[in-house]
Automatic annotation (TrEMBL):
Residues at which Mg(2+) binds: E250
Domain Aminoacyl-transfer RNA synthetases class-II family profile: 107-314
PROSITE patterns: AA_TRNA_LIGASE_II
Localization: Cytoplasm
EC number: 6.1.1.20
Catalysed reaction equations from the record: tRNA(Phe) + L-phenylalanine + ATP = L-phenylalanyl-tRNA(Phe) + AMP + diphosphate + H(+)
Protein name: Phenylalanine--tRNA ligase alpha subunit
Species this protein is from: Barnesiella viscericola DSM 18177
GO molecular function, one term: ATP binding
Source organism phylogeny: Bacteria, Pseudomonadati, Bacteroidota, Bacteroidia, Bacteroidales
Keywords from the UniProt entry: Aminoacyl-tRNA synthetase, ATP-binding, Coiled coil, Cytoplasm, Ligase, Magnesium, Metal-binding, Nucleotide-binding, Protein biosynthesis
Length: 339
């Protein structure tokens, strides 16, 4: 009896499986009601009384080891074959090529990094907004064209809920809940009801910056802009500011940079002027500060905003805005070396 137990134990220790059916065959052979181990328990009744203790001990150990071995084989089989069973036959063949960051993400990250070195932190807000944060708090007149449905995607009226037209709404939300000094940069997607062409799209991306504190001046704004232009486009880049108008800043300006293609000498890209417009800026209108709960008699500030697509066009010479959202791998692969 003991020799038979030893023989079966050696068989069990040597067991291996190559397919799932082998596991069930092992269970039936050794552990089923008519299996070899069950048969040994039946034969145990005829064992001499003085041998029952030793035989019974080895028989129980054999059964425990058989169960352990079966579980081990089952675990090994599942680990070995799990990857094969979960193969998706529709996926791209191995090896799968590594992807790369989208050009807009590359430029956004670079802009945020530059302003981060000036002490600006990133602030974000919802893309579905209300009229107050997008227009009213920013000193837009009730009859301003931007509030027309031909210019803006309104979701509902009374109350007015819309897709934000600029990330300035993040600035108003921040000023409502924080006291100066405030130094934030607001990247994000915005929406405007425009015909889609190589020059415009119904959605695009912006980065806006806001600095509010005591004694902030236009000179501070100009110096920040000059630093940004040189860091983004090269140390030889020059800037110029032209008077402009925005409801939320006074005074306001458009900023041009010397053309980074011809170096300011004049070419087709800059329309032979030597300058290219990249952003709008100005000192925050006192009405905006007051509407957001900041005392305009104590604090002042500047704000600026730029389209990420515009900066990406200047940096990488992309001629068609639609290419940024078409997800053409051939186009995206061009920017792998820009990381």
């Amino acid at each position: 009896m003991i020799e038979k137990i030893q023989r079966i134990r050696e068989e069990i220790e040597a067991l291996k499986v190559s397919k799932s059916e082998d596991l069930e065959a092992i269970r039936i052979k050794y552990l089923s009601k008519k299996g070899e181990i069950s048969q040994l328990f039946n034969d145990f009744r005829s064992v001499a009384a003085d041998q029952k203790r030793e035989v019974g001990k080895q028989l129980n150990e054999l059964k425990e080891r058989a169960v352990e071995k079966l579980n081990e084989l089952k675990s090994e089989f599942e680990d070995t074959h799990s990857d094969e069973q979960n193969i998706d036959l529709t996926r791209t063949a191995y090896p799968i090529p590594m992807g790369s960051r989208h050009p807009l993400s590359l430029v956004k990250n670079e802009i945020c990094d530059i302003f981060g070195r000036l002490g600006f932190s990133i602030a974000e807000g919802p893309e579905i907004e209300d009229d107050w944060h997008v227009f009213s708090a920013l000193n837009f007149a009730e009859d301003h064209p931007a509030r027309d449905m031909q210019d803006t995607f309104f979701i509902q009226r009374s109350p007015d809920i819309l897709l934000r037209t600029h990330t300035s709404s993040v600035q108003t939300r921040t000023m409502e809940h924080a006291q100066p000094p405030i130094r934030i940069i607001c990247p994000g997607r915005v929406y405007r009801n425009e015909a889609i062409s190589y020059r415009a799209h119904c959605f695009f991306h912006q980065v806006e910056a806001l600095y509010v504190d005591k004694n902030v001046s236009f000179a501070d704004l100009k110096q920040a802009l000059l630093y940004f232009a040189k860091e983004m486009f090269g140390s030889e880049t020059q800037i110029r500011l032209r008077p402009s108008y925005f409801p939320f800043t006074e005074p306001s300006a458009e900023m041009d940079i010397s053309c980074n293609i011809c170096g300011g000498k004049g070419c087709a890209f800059c329309k032979h002027t030597g300058w290219v417009e990249i952003l709008g800026c100005g000192m925050v209108d006192p009405n905006v500060l007051d509407a957001c709960g900041i005392d305009s008699k104590v604090y002042s500030g500047y704000a600026l905003g730029m389209g990420i697509e515009r900066i990406t066009n200047l940096k990488y010479k992309v001629k068609d805005l639609r290419m940024f959202s078409e997800n053409d791998v051939r186009f995206l692969e061009k920017f792998e070396s820009a990381h």
